[in-house]
Structures are given as C-alpha cells and as structure tokens.
Amino acid sequence: MPKRYLYIWFPYLPIERMSKKHPELHGKPFLLYAPERGRMVVRAVSPALVKEGIRPGMVVADVRAIFPGLEVIPAEPEADAQLLNKLAEWCFRFSPIVAVDPPDGLVLDISGCPHLWGGELPYLEAIVERLQKGGYAARAAIADTIGAAWAVARFCRELLIEPGRQEEALLQLPPVALRLDEPTLQRLDKLGFRKISQLTAIPPGNLRRRLGDALLFRLGQALGTERELLKPIQPTPVYLERLPCLEPIRTAKGIEIALERLLAMLCTRLSSESKGMRSGILKGYRLDGETVQISIGTNRASRNAAHLFKLFELKIPELEPALGIELFTLEATLVEEVTEAQEALWSLGCNNQTVIAELLDTIAGKVGLQCIRRYLPQESYWPEHSVKEVGSLDSQPETEWRTDRPRPMHLLPRPEPIEVMVVLPDYPPMHFRYKGELIHLVRADGPERIEQEWWLQHGPPRDYYRVEDDTGARYWIFRLGLYGNGKPQWFLHGYFV
Amino acid sequence: MYDRISNKKDLIRQLKEQLLSMEGFSSGSVSRRLDFGLGPMNAAFPGGTFPIGSIHELVSPTEADAAAANGFLAGLLSTLMGQSGICLWISVGRKLFPPALKFFGIEPHRVIFVDVKLKKDGLWVMEQALKCTALSAVVAELREVSFAESRRLQLAVEDSRVTGFLHRIRPVSQATLACVSRWKISPQPSHSNGLPGVGFSRVQVELEKIRNGRPGSWQFEWRKGRFLFVPAKRPAALTAESAKNNLDSNKASTKMKAG
C-alpha cells in the first residue's frame, strides 16, 4: 500500500505557548530571544512583527532600535519541546504513528486513516480546525513523502498533493524547501538556483561533485526515490480501570467493595507487566455531576492489592458520596518497574523490607510522607551538614559514619546563645549561663576547630569544646569567632551522653 | 524423684517461667536470650534477662537526662538490632543527632525517623509500628502518655513481641503507666583517672519499677562499644524501700549542695 504522510507545521508555537502562559501578552507584539555567541538573538516573533519585517536570527538590539519599548522575553526551548511532544501525543487520535520534527513540526503516517474522516480533505481540515480551536495556528499538508509534505506545508498554497504528484508540486518551490543546511543554501543562492526545477535539470553526477551528497539525498527523499524512516513516539500506557455501578453507591461498604474490585483488576495487570504502583487516584463520579477523589502514594512500587487497599481505606471517609456515586475509576498515576531480582536486592532479610515499606506507607498516609526521614552520612565537618536526608529506603551510605571526633547525642536545632566566663582566651569557660541557670564546669575537652565551608557560606570558625559540669551533665559548646577581633559569641549546641 | 531437692528447684523454675509467660513476658527462649552486657543488673530482671517484647518507660526530667537516656537506649538498641535489624524512632520535636548513634554501635541509616507534630499521631504511629514484626524495636519520644494509651501499646506488643520504648522527656505528670518497667537515667561525673579532660560517658541507671523484678540503681560507663558496670560503694541491688530511702537522701544531698 502506498504511504501517505501528513505534516503539521506550527509557525508560531513558542509565541502561542508564551501568550497562553502570560494571558496579558495575547495579541500584543513581542519576541523571544536566546543568547548566541554573546549576542541576544531573536528566536521567535509574534505575527504582528513578522509583517514589520522582523525575522528570527536578527539581533535583539537592532530590533529594539527600530521598535523601542518592544516586549522581549527569554525563550524557553525545553518547554517548547515538551509542548510539541504533548501535541504529538494528542495527535494519536488521528493516526497511530506520530513523530516529532523539532523544533516546530509533527509528522503523521496517515496511510489508511483519512477514510475514517471521509477523505483526505475533511481529515486535513478537521486536524487544522481542532488545533486552531486549541489556540495553535497550524498549516498541514499531505503528500506521498515526508520531504514533500514538509515543503508543501511551509511553502505551497496547495496543501493536498495527490498520490504521485509530489514532483510537480516541488519543482516550482525554492531550494530552501529541501531541508538543506545553511552553507549549501547560500552556495545555491550564489550559483543562481532559485527553483528546484533548475536543480533537477542538471545531471546528478555534476550536482554531487559541486554540492555534495546531502543535496541529492534530500532531493530523493522529497521525490520519493530515497527512503526516509520515521521515529514514532511511544504512547505512555495508562493504568486505568473503570467500574460502573448499576445502582449509585452511597455507603462506605459499597465504596470498599468497588475499590477491592478495581484493585484486583489493576494489580493483575500490573503484575503481568511486572510493574508496581507508586501513586494512585480513586475517583468517584457522582450523580450530581461532581467528581470526588482520594489519592495515595507508596514508598516502594507495590502491586499488593491488600496493602494498597489498606492505604486507600484510611482515606475512604474523605469521599462524600452525596446522592450516590455511579462510576469509579482507579488510575495508577505513577508506575515503576518491579522485578523479582529487585525485590531480592533487599539483602537485609528480604521479606522484612517489604513489610516495613508497607508499614511506612500506612504511616505516610496518616501523617504525611515528609515526616518519615532517613539519614546518610555526608562528607562534611560542619555538624549541620554532616548528614543528609534521603527519601528512599534503598539508598545505602557511600561513605562511613565517622566516629573519630566526639559528636553529641542531642543536637539543638539551632545553637543557643550562652553567657560565659572565660579565664584566658582559647580556654574553655569556667561556667556559663543558659536560660538563667548558672552551670559550673569541671572538665573540658577541646577545642575542635571547625572552619566554615567557604564554598557554601562565609563567616568566622567555630571552636567546639566538650565540657562537663559538677553534676555530670556533658555539653557541646562552641565559640564563634576568635578573641582579638571583636567579641566572640558563645553557643550551646548539644548534649553528650 | 531420686534427687528431690533439685527436682523441686526445677519445678519452681518451670512454674516461674510459666507465670511470667502468662503475664505477657517472653518465655526467653535460647534464640531470643540476648546479652546486653548489663552484668550484675540482669539479676534485677524477671528470669535474669532483659525483658524483650514489652514496653519500657524512660523518664527524663531534664534535657541532659534525656541525652543520657537516649545514649543508654542506643546501647540497648545496638544489641536488639544486631547486624541487620531496623528500628523506628518516633518523636515530637526530635533533638537526636543521627551520627551519634554510630558511637553506640548502631548504623544510623538503619534507623527510620518519624517526626510527628502531635502526640496523638505519635501514639498512632507507635501502635502501628509495634504490630509490625519486622522491626527490631520502636522508640517513641513523647512528653505525656496516659495510662489507657500505654495499655493499648502494651496489648499491641503482646502479639508481635516487638520491644518498645516510651521515652518521656520533661513530663508534667508522674502517672504510672502499663509498662513493665520505668527507668530513669542521669549523667554522672566521669572519671578520667587524673588525666585532663572528660572521661568515658558515665550514667546512673535507676530502675524505678520492674514487674516481677527487683528495682535498683547501677552505674555504667560506655567503653569500647559496650556497657561497663561501675561498682558503687553502696550495694548494687537494693530492695525497693532502701532504694527509695537512698533516692531521698540523694535528693537531700543535692539540695544541700545547691543550697
């Protein structure tokens, strides 16, 4: 079956994205720029400015000289690429094979699709119309080859090229329609080639000798003598189960039964694909048109229906059935691979770890995930930076926990200022006053000087002393700064055993 | 029958163990008989071993006491957790500095901290955790716990045999709880044998209450990764009454010092 391709060109994609993000820009002239070799270069311009002769590639300073007070905004190419990907996913409704052509185009392999819309013309119009409704100006063209569709969408008035007619359509177009690189285009321009028909009139051997392989290759792709492969994007699989109810559900028990059934369905599917759920949403569609939902998250990907049920169960009271829920959907919004090998990696009594992960999920469901903390050592002498928090249960320390310097059992969240009496500079204090209480010190160790980590923060060093008072209580105190330049401050930072 | 005296002794021992297991103490099977290195203190415990699978209460009136209690607790936990155990540490307003656990033989990354804002949440988390047999121990640092709440926790451990510690820091009330024991740990002046500086950490361990055991008071030093019993001048294990007297006289003497 002969192939047919549809190319969608978005002439103003970055502009449209920006004016959707900032609605106040809508309809106003503005441009997007990005730095290039030390200059600010125009990347995209709004339609109004195109009419004034502003083109991408100009220097922002020049444009500003022409239009003082013009709105200029930094471009966000990554966000534009994401949007293009989203649009590509949206296009799955028109064809199962969709590819992204950065920075501003989509290619659809539409062989065998248009008849569902009643022919190629209504199909083309349907796509463009729906995109325009969504706020994206688009030009789409259909041809036998990707190259021809690309050229026609951009440079031709005619948008529908009948099968086998691409050569006729292309011959009248300028060489820029062949997707060539800039140096080749400039050389063609110098040589006086204004139309593709002038190129095809020359024997291919001569062309190759003067202008290289790329030109012939591109020409072949556009005309259909060279093959061009498409890299279609993969649709993200949706883990969603639906459960319509014969009668509206109004009781907690009913919701539980619905949840159990949905979980059983979803978990069967997850285990057949060796996946596990990290977060899920249970939605209930009510009779009065409202939607109610509860969501859960897990510490480790899980496909244990009983465990997931327990997590949801804690939140069922939050679902308000009102007149009744007629449809339940359960979606795994975040899914991760779980393989048996990975489960075995839990070296520490493997099964225990799963049980503990499930316990932590239950706790996180009640008090919040941010309450659960685990610490790993970090290579830093500064006490506050010597540990780092980790979220996952799997992560293991990369360095040893250090025990060569004394560290207190209790560390105050922030050092508390104390008043001290010191006999000599660089000596530990005789006594100190903390919260109105006078503490006489008997023994002391130190000082341990800890300098500021200059790559993080600046300031005077800390001299830590481990001191013991007459009742036996042991403290960790430090002096911030040195005697000699200004008056150093003393702080209490922790308690030793 | 031939050796009646030893038979009688065996019988009494068996009956005692039965009684203990009926009262919710672990039967102390060989595999679970852990040595905490508490030396002469073991005599105070029922069956001569630290009760596992029950709730212990620690009371710390001051911040320095709390640090000492956590140190002693860490020493116990290192034995309970062994090489691969995992411990849950629940607290409201936690001050514990994780790297310090390493000094007491615990890999700090094997402790999972749950920092809650409300006591109510802390108790809920503790009850859930105590039902999880995969954990070696559960510690909760809370301020106030009522009798009913503590009984609920005790019931939770009786099935799972997880050891729980309720550490009450600066409590207002001194209400009795349904725990097998009540401990009070306070730091003691260290002895450095005439050398300058601070010596090994020394703590006074007061076992104020122990079900089916004998309360008393001991001093321990943490040296080279284990507890070292420091013999005091007075007898180590005291009867409940003399312990109380001793306590009162101790208080009086500290008051006098302060005065």
From TrEMBL, chain A:
Belongs to the DNA polymerase type-Y family. Residues 12-112 form the UmuC domain. One of its GO terms (biological process) is DNA repair. Residues 387-408 are annotated as: Disordered. Keywords: DNA damage. CDD domains: PolY_like. The keyword DNA damage applies. InterPro entries: DNA/RNA_pol_sf, Rev_trsase/Diguanyl_cyclase, SulA_CellDiv_inhibitor, UmuC. It holds the Pfam family IMS. This is Protein ImuB.
Automatic annotation (TrEMBL), chain B:
Residues 242-253 have a biased composition (Polar residues). It comes from the Bacteria. Residues 240-259 are annotated as: Disordered. This is Protein ImuA. It comes from Mangrovibacterium marinum.
